[in-house]
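Help: read this over?
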Amino acid sequence: MCDMTNPAESGDGLSRAAWRVRAEVSGLPPGVWERRPFVILQFFADDSGNAPNQDTMALGGLVAPAAKWVEFTMGWEALLKGTPSAEYFKFSQAYRMRGEFDERGGWSEEERNSRVERMSQLVADTATAWCFVTMRHEDFETYLRNQPVPFRSFLSDHPYLLMFGRLMAALAVRLSAERLSDPCQVYMDTQHGQDAFVRTLLWPSIIQTLVETPPTLIPADAIKPKFSDAPRFESDREFLPLQAADLIAGATRMGAMEGSIPAYMAPILKIPRNGFEMSSDDVRVMGERLRLTIEEAKRAFPDMPLYPPGKR
């Protein structure tokens, strides 16, 4: 009998990490699996530059059928285990040749370039689309964070949650444009302390805006995107596609700030892209809408307290 907890005994050649991806969506035993390929979609995303002193923040992600992500995981593991090896991939470490890509670990610039180019090609061969959103921290600070609000939280004080909503809008538009009607599961790299808020409070609002009400981004007669569940927040050490998302988020941010990415990452430019490069005017308009909403609420509830940044 095959031990389903031990991928080495499955007989299908999948590694433990690949099994981890497959088990998320199939629930099917070996034998049935090979005769019934699944088509559910998975979207893996990550952030880059989330500290206020980092000028620009980016969220970037990749969508593909789950079967493609299983193949990707096998290939990604093989690339990590090459010589020299890396335990995991981080864009910042690879770009600066630190951490897992440090020269003391046997890496040279030529070897780094070659390996990351092969990783980029694997990502390009896997992904159906690349979705992204960028915003300058200064714009968020000036037009949104500096406004007094009834309750201060991560939502009012950091751009991540606002940008997450925009990223999901970009994903919904892409799924509709590609006429991808299969349910899509969203995976994000772990955000300590914000996971529950996104899943229980923010996600229902996003779904209502993008799917359940007449959308403004998606034509009424178009394919409506389907999401199989609330987002999953996972470790990129367990879910290797999140390491590809880290590469994409880093490249998105670098492209927004410098206008280009390193030549050895060029293969990812073949992936169809769509998203939001939020300009200062875009954020200013959002800030003005927030100000008007708060003023209206204050008129209705004159005793409602308002707190500036740094106050609760």
Remarks:
- The longest strand covers residues 56-65.
- The first helix runs from residue 16 to 23.
- The CA atoms of residues 124 and 214 lie 33 Å apart.
- Residues 1-11, 26-30, 32-38 have pLDDT under 50 and may be disordered.
